[in-house]
Amino acid sequence: MEKGYMLEKLTWPKAKKAFEDTTFVVIPIGSTEQHGPHLPVGTDFMVPREIAARLVKKSKVIVTPTIPFGYAKYHTTFPGTMSLHEDTLRQVLIDLCEDLLKYGTTHILFIDGHGGNLNALRQCGIWLRERCIPSAVAVWWQIAPAIDPSWQAIGHADYVEVSAVLGIDESLVDMDVARLPKNKDLSDKLVTLDPHSTKFQGGVVGVNLFTADITDTGDLMEFGLTGAKDYTIEPSTGTKEIGERFLEGQADYLANFIEEFRKVTLPPVETTGPLAKK
Predict the structure, then answer these.
(1) What's the CATH number where 55 sits?
(2) Pairing mode, if any, of strands 197-200 and 203-206?
(3) Integer-rounded Cα radius of gyration of the chain
(4) C-alpha dist (Å) from residue 129 to 25, 125, 136, 267
């Protein structure tokens, strides 16, 4: 039996009652982007959508329809990727939250499946903070090691993502072409960590690249994304069993987080800090 509500399944009178029953809203968001030759372009929104669907069975929350588009312009040299501009994404998030606040929402959790969304989500979070609304952003690769320390994300379309998609629908993964990718470096001394950073003489310097600058297949390594030590784990080692434990573990973790986050209240911004109004 579900403790919470899937907003998309409710009539407006039932939605009204749901917002009277709980003021905590969960918004799944991801991206429609290439995931190498072996994972579908919907990976980044299907994973948070599935986690949210499981979460509604464990926590009294309202889960909104999933936002399937994000900022992924750097992936658009691969067919199938569809990206919003970052300013557009920020405004979409604020517009949706503005409506949710009308219905009495007091807390918002975004379940995000794509790193490119984080800047827009932070900006929306500041907009919410100005209105005394606590918001949080949960991304799976930051949570996964808390569920199982062996789950350390190592790259785009890696074994963890493969497992998650297998846990949703085994038919969506093409294991025959799943291979450990090798990034193309910018030079002999500039080692590419991901599309946004390069390593040089022991330091890390930000760069602005398209995914195709460092990979011909779309999947790639993302060194330093987590505390991973082993970057030799083949994506083909992903399994449905790992995916099921991953998805259920994410939902359990977030259900516990929500119960604690419900307690958070925030004062008006103008009453805080050295410029506080007396």
Answers:
(1) 3.40.50.10310
(2) antiparallel
(3) 20
(4) 15, 6, 11, 9
How does pLDDT run across 212-222, given as a tens digit for each residue?
Answer: 999 999 999 99
Asked whether residue 170 is assigned to any structural domain, the reply reads no
Residue 173 contacts residue 166 (beta carbons within 8 Å): yes
Give domain status of residue 124, yes or no.
yes
Distances, alpha carbon 200 to alpha carbons 12, 66, 192, 195, 259, in Å? 56, 39, 9, 15, 44
Reported as half-sphere exposure (CB side, CA atoms, 13 A), residue 44 has a value of 28
Question: CA–CA separation, 22 vs 94, rounded Å?
Answer: 21
Within 8 A by CB and 6+ apart from 256, the residues are none
Tens digit of each residue's pLDDT (9 = 90 or more) over 69-82: 999 999 999 999 99
What is the widest separation between alpha-carbon atoms in the chain?
66
The verdict on residue 54 lying in a domain is yes
As given in the structure block, the two tokens for residue 118 are: 């984080």
